[in-house]
């Protein structure tokens, strides 16, 4: 953990209370877990009450944008039109799309169709057609507070195989969420996600995962879904991260489009589905911040 604080000093969490009456026992418990060899979070990963309030305001926009586009997505539309809707709705509500110009990403959303695993770039050339499955991934910056979530959309009449993939990918998120509680491990969540996908004959992408989120768009820890129970980082109240497994119908392998440097595809060309939620670890368990 970080530098020593006196028992009567103000707590690092800015609650205004003395350390001994606030986070001292919490820090001691984390230190004991670290001594046992576990990976533990540092204070920068623990959100204060004010930060959580700001992030929730950001998430209101993120959720509203997804609700808004859900009412407009239809066959015949191109993904650039979705991008325009996202930019306009987000900025009208006072936020800014966090992906826009993020490390050179050119658009206000990721739109990933069928065999695109994630980071699809909206384009007039990508026209949605009957039977497509589409992930729209939205992230919002409001006054420096970040939210991030994504949903799947089925365009028109989708095959039972693809529909099943979309449903199981969503269930994976909620099976993982059940494991999110203080003093458990990210690996508890990761293994639950993986095992559920595997039980349906699917695979979960290894190279790309979730992440801490809130004060930065992408913060530590990295969150994988091929991890093992009892391993990876300890979860403690105040931590916030995404659950966003990419579930492949076929093989686990992916490749990145070498022309745009962003978009991931399944190696075998079979479809992939992803839902993303943003989660806060609380004293009681968890709270969904964005979905
Ligand atoms: N919202 C995506 C995520 O879940 C953002 C990826 S970065 C981008 O982390 F630049 F590709 F948008
Ligand atoms: Co994310």
Keywords:
single chain; 291 residues; alpha+beta; 4-stranded antiparallel beta sheet; 5 helices; 15 strands; binds 2-amino-4-trifluoromethylsulfanyl-butyric acid; binds cobalt (II) ion
Describe this structure in words.
This protein is of the alpha+beta class. The protein is 27% helix and 22% strand. It is built from 5 helices and 15 strands. The strands form 5 sheets. Strands 1, 2, 4 and 5 form a 4-stranded antiparallel β-sheet that branches. A 3-stranded antiparallel β-sheet has the order 3-12-11, with no helix packed on it. Strands 6-10-13 form a 3-stranded antiparallel β-sheet, with helices on one face. It is globular and about 65 Å long. The chain starts with 23 loop residues before the first helix and ends with a strand. The mean pLDDT is 97. 2-amino-4-trifluoromethylsulfanyl-butyric acid binds at residues 99, 102-103, 105, 110, 119, 137, 139, 148, 242, 244, 262, 276. The site of 2-amino-4-trifluoromethylsulfanyl-butyric acid (MF3) has 13 residues, from strand 4.
By secondary-structure content and strand pairing, the structural class works out as: alpha+beta
Order of helices and strands: HHHEEEEEHHEEEEEEEEEE
Unreliable parts: none
Mean pLDDT: 97
How is this fold's topology laid out?
Layout: H1 24-35, H2 49-70, H3 79-92, E1 96-97, E2 110-113, E3 116-118, E4 133-142, E5 145-154, H4 160-177, H5 186-199, E6 203-204, E7 210-212, E8 219-223, E9 240-243, E10 246-248, E11 254-256, E12 264-266, E13 272-274, E14 277-281, E15 286-290
Antiparallel strand pairs: 1-4, 2-4, 3-12, 4-5, 6-10, 7-8, 9-14, 10-13, 11-12, 14-15
Helix pairs in contact: 2-3, 4-5
This protein binds 2-amino-4-trifluoromethylsulfanyl-butyric acid and cobalt (II) ion (CO).
């Amino acid at each position: 953990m970080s530098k020593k604080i006196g028992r009567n000093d103000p707590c690092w969490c800015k609650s205004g209370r003395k350390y001994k009456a606030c986070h001292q026992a919490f820090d001691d418990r984390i230190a004991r877990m670290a001594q046992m060899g576990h990976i533990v979070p540092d204070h920068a990963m623990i959100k204060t009450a004010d930060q959580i309030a700001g992030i929730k305001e950001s998430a209101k926009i993120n959720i509203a944008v997804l609700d808004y586009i859900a009412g407009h997505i239809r066959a015949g539309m191109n993904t650039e039109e979705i991008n325009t809707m996202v930019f306009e709705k987000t900025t009208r509500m006072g936020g800014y799309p966090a992906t826009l110009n993020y490390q050179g990403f050119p658009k206000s959303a990721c739109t990933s169709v069928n065999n695109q695993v994630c980071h699809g770039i909206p384009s007039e050339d990508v026209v949605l057609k009957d039977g497509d499955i589409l992930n729209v991934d939205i992230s919002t910056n409001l006054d420096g507070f970040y939210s991030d979530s994504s949903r799947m959309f089925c365009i028109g009449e989708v095959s039972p195989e693809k529909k099943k993939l979309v449903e199981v990918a969503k269930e994976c998120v909620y099976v993982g969420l059940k494991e999110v509680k203080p003093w458990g491990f990210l690996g508890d969540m990761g293994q639950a996600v993986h095992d559920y996908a595997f039980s349906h004959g699917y695979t979960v992408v290894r190279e790309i995962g979730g992440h801490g989120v809130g004060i930065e768009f992408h913060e530590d820890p990295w969150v994988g879904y091929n991890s093992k129970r009892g391993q990876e980082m300890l979860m403690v109240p105040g931590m916030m991260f995404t659950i966003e497994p990419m579930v492949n119908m076929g093989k686990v392998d992916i490749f990145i489009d070498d022309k745009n440097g962003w978009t991931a595809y399944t190696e075998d060309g079979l479809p992939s589905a992803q839902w993303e939620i943003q989660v806060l670890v609380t004293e009681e368990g968890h709270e969904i911040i964005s979905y």
